[in-house]
Each structure stands twice: as structure tokens, then as C-alpha cells.
What we know:
TIM Barrel; alpha/beta; 8 strands; 35% helix; eight-stranded parallel β-sheet; binds zinc ion; 8 helices; binds D-xylitol-5-phosphate; 218 residues
Amino acid sequence: xxxxxxxxxxxxxxxLVKHLPGIEKExxxxxxxxxxxxYVPNISxxxxxxxxxxxxxxxxxDTHLMIERPDKYFERFAEAGSDLICFHPETVQNPIEAIKxxxxxxxxxxxxxxxxxxxxxxxxxxxxxxLALVLSIEAGFxxxxxxxxxxxxxxxxxxEIDAEKLETLLEVDGGVNAQTAGTVLKAGADIxxxxxxxxxxxxxxxxxxxxxxxxxxx
Length: 218
Ligand code: DX5
Ligand code: ZN
């Protein structure tokens, strides 16, 4: 499975609902970037937007929490309708406990590696995860350039996932576009998060169609 998860951070949120029916015909994941102004120097959206999206779409809501102490809010994100909850290991006191909490809420669980965090932070938990996310930028803002050094992390995780025959999906987030997607896929990514590349120029649906054709995505 190779697919695009459009990140609504780059969308005009009041316009998004108009595009959703077309988007969900092309891909079934939607990437939701939650930011609190503490873990990252930016604030995006939270439960209310997710709940409202949940009522409008059956897409798989891939929720990326860039917040301090996300474990205080897992329940609220699950209630709002997140299908997957992804957190950064350094934001919780006990990653194993956090993984368990998310699973007990009936959600899929992901762990994200910020740019400066090494793969060692995620390796001990890999077999427990539905998703491993490599941030190929410094978390906080859309529209940044892909950091080439991230390719090493993607390759290292791909190697480990394959060696251990895990079903963990590998997601890459940040600066993924028509120029970088090929290399990212070659390095072993399963899910490509695309914000600006989908919601920037042109129309989201046409942009997704182009990427799917160009990179032979599902
Ligand atoms: C940034 C977010 C990304 C962001 C990607 O912290 O995690 O999901 O929306 O945006 P682009 O695709 O524009 O780099
Ligand atoms: Zn993200």
C-alpha cells in the first residue's frame, strides 16, 4: 500500500468541505496536524475541527499531535473521531503507557520522529506501532523544504520493519511534493503526507490525481 495523506494544515479550512467529496474519491487518509504553541511554535486546530470533519467524511483521520503531554488528551481525540493518534515520544512520560492508552481507546497508534530525534527513540516500540512517522522537516509549519538527511531515517526504519516482518506503516511528513516523492518512496515510505503539494497551487483533487499517476500510488 502506497498512498497520499493530504494534510489540511495547508488548506483553506472554510473551503475544505467543498473539496472533501472529490478528495475522498482519490484517497482514504486525511492527515490532521494538531499544534499547541508549546511543543511547536505554532497553533493549529483541535477537537472541534476533528469532530466536525468526522461528521462530514468517512476518511481515515490520521491525527498527528504536536503538543506537550498529549496523553492528557488522547481520550478527547478518540471521542472527536480520530482513527489514528500519533504522538512524539519525548512529549510523554511513558511511551509504552501512551501506546497502551491509545490502543485501549480503540484507535490505531503512531509515533513520530521530529527532525533532530534519532531513530533509536522509536526502535524499541516499533513492533507495537501501527505507524511510524518520519518528519522530514522541523515540526511546526507547512511549506518547508524537505531535509535530505531524513532519507537515512526512512531507510533505517524500512530496513527494521522488513527485517522484523512488521506491519507498521512508514509515513513521511514534510516537504513531500512532485520533486521529492520519488526519492521518499524509493527510501521505503508507505504513506506520503502532502500539505502544500495538494492544497497549494491548482485544485486539491487534480493535484492528488497527478501524484497518484506520476508515482503509481493507490
Ligand atoms: C508540519 C506538519 C506537516 C505539514 C506538511 O509540522 O506535520 O504535516 O502540514 O506540510 P507540507 O507538505 O507543506 O510540507
Ligand atoms: Zn503532520
